[in-house]
Write a structure and sequence with these properties.
This protein is an all-alpha fold. It is about 55% helix and about 0% strand. It has a domain of about 110 residues. The protein has a two-stranded parallel ribbon with strand order 1-2. Helix 4 crosses helix 5.
């Protein structure tokens, strides 16, 4: 083995070692920052992700398309909302969009379903804000449903009994 071959072989070995030692921390850094970016992008419904205008429009749409089968009280409070805690707003909206109205699921515009969701959030004392909730599925996948939620009010009869 000549001196040049020996040096060349050792240099290649060192290059592989240096590459690997550079790759491992780089990969770790990338995975850590990517995870942090997802957390930064992630929002909660408690971050005021819809407007009062959207909730008002949603109230009108709800009366028009939903109230004949669903009294709004059935969607108020932890008893209902806890079943959605931790879910993405996108998933919540899609269940409604794919199943409602019963006689014609998916018949409303996507923006109208978003407005109905905003109305349901307002019913549960989730705060509104200055930015509209987008109807874009990618944006809705970054918003998670989290409490606290409004407690469902008892009827006057049940209050008087206790």
């Amino acid at each position: 083995m000549t001196w040049n071959t020996l040096v060349y072989t050792r240099m290649k070995s060192y290059q592989k070692i240096i590459f690997l030692f550079g790759l491992i921390p780089g990969t770790m850094w990338f995975s850590l920052t990517t995870g942090q970016n997802k957390k930064i992008l992630r929002k909660s419904v408690q971050d005021s992700v819809f407007t009062e205008t959207q909730a008002n429009q949603g109230s009108k749409l709800y009366r028009k398309a939903c109230v004949r089968c669903h009294h709004p009280r059935q969607f108020v409070g932890p008893a209902y909302m806890d079943s959605w805690t931790g879910a993405r707003v996108h998933d919540f909206l899609e269940v409604i969009r794919r199943t409602m109205p019963t006689e014609n699921p998916g018949s409303l515009k996507r923006e109208e379903y978003v407005e109905i969701v905003a109305f349901l959030f307002r019913l549960n004392s989730i705060p509104s804000g200055s930015r509209e909730m987008s109807s874009d599925p990618t944006a809705l996948k970054l918003i998670y449903i989290e409490g606290p939620y409004k407690r469902a009010q008892q009827s006057k009869k049940s209050k008087n009994k206790g």
